Amino acid sequence: MESELIVFSGNANRNVAEKICKWLDVPLGKAICSQFSDGETRVELQTNVRGRDVFIIQPLSAPANHHIMEAVIMADACARSSAKRITLVAPYFGYARQERKSAARTPITAKLVADLIEASGFNRVLTMELHNGAIQGFFKIPVDHLYAKPIFGKHFSSTPDDNVIVVSPDAGGTERARAMAKHFNCGLAIIDKRRDQPNESAVMHIIGNVEGKNVIMIDDIIDTAGSITKAAVALKESGALSVTAAISHPVLSGPAIERLNDSCLNELVVTDSIQLTSEAKKCDKIKQLSIAELFGKAIRRIHGNDSISALFV
Ligand code: R5P
């Protein structure tokens, strides 16, 4: 059974794919995944996949349109080459923030992307910290949904003391933050965030008492860093001693790095679900933790038809 496992990577985050392969102690499958002269994606598997259990590692991160096409074209190549099972390993699931009609005449892109993934031949999906867990229901194929809690929990295990409080930067993230507060056995506060425009945020007020506390803010995505840096100001103004953010997916687009550098945030801890840009790598406030062990364990268990619920610690 073990010999049937094969892992391929698209171009979204080859570093993390290599780390996962290292943890699994398997070589990364050989494949061409490049572009034709006109920009169309060119894929050619250079390893036999007939009857094999294929895992394609590809976060659906920016440029999301391109990376989604790479993933589905790789799946098509595997399906047409008689792979036994094809799993999309997408540590970051892009387009997830449009998971419902938030206004008239708008799309539901998370469902559209789920349909594309299924239509291309994928048989299952392994992902982490979906913006909304209900996106699992957009698929008819099995979705294994991991949490970053074991990674952040281990990182902060030496930190928590009586002075720590976990904060959700918006009401939608309360469940995620509550799970972390329970893990640390500490208090929880919530920020009432109102957004007038996409990618713009305004902190309204804090529900809970953060005075004299060291804050750990928990969220799924940091994009333009508007939410987190404004939340940090509000928390400091409300008497927080320090503000650290632990955020699963470092999208970090547009003015994010400038905002982080200028912010009162002490530290931003993220995972490597998305590869950092060279600008982000130079930002002293960012610390990146690896998902390789968590995903390596999940792939090993899926391949062996073992339960992965033990990973939800
Ligand atoms: C939205 O609800 C997400 O959980 C994040 O809070 C949001 O995507 C962050 O965006 P930004 O960094 O652009 O404020």
List the helices and strands and how they pair.
Layout lengths: L4 E5 L4 H11 L6 E5 L5 E5 L7 E5 L6 H17 L4 E6 L18 H11 L4 E5 L14 E4 L2 H7 L8 E5 L5 H11 L2 E8 L7 E6 L6 E9 L3 H12 L4 E9 L5 H7 L4 E5 L6 H4 L4 E4 L2 H12 L10
Parallel strand pairs: 1-4, 4-5, 5-6, 6-7, 8-9, 8-11, 11-12, 12-13, 13-14
Antiparallel strand pairs: 2-3, 9-10
Helix pairs in contact: 1-9, 2-3
The site of ribose-5-phosphate has 17 residues, from strand 11 and helix 6.
Your description of this structure?
It is a single chain. With 313 residues, the protein is of the alpha/beta class. It has 2 domains: 2-146 and 292-312, 3-Layer(aba) Sandwich (Rossmann fold); 149-289, Rossmann fold. Helices cover 29% and strands 26% of the residues. The chain is built from 9 helices and 14 strands. Strands 10-9-8-11-12-13-14 form a 7-stranded mixed sheet, sandwiched between helices. A 5-stranded parallel sheet has the order 1-4-5-6-7, with helices on both faces. The protein has a two-stranded antiparallel ribbon with strand order 2-3. α1 (14-24) packs across α9 (292-303) and α2 (64-80) packs parallel to α3. The longest helix is centred in the first third of the chain and has 17 residues, at 64-80. Ribose-5-phosphate (R5P) is lined by residues 97, 169-170, 172-173, 199, 201, 219-228.
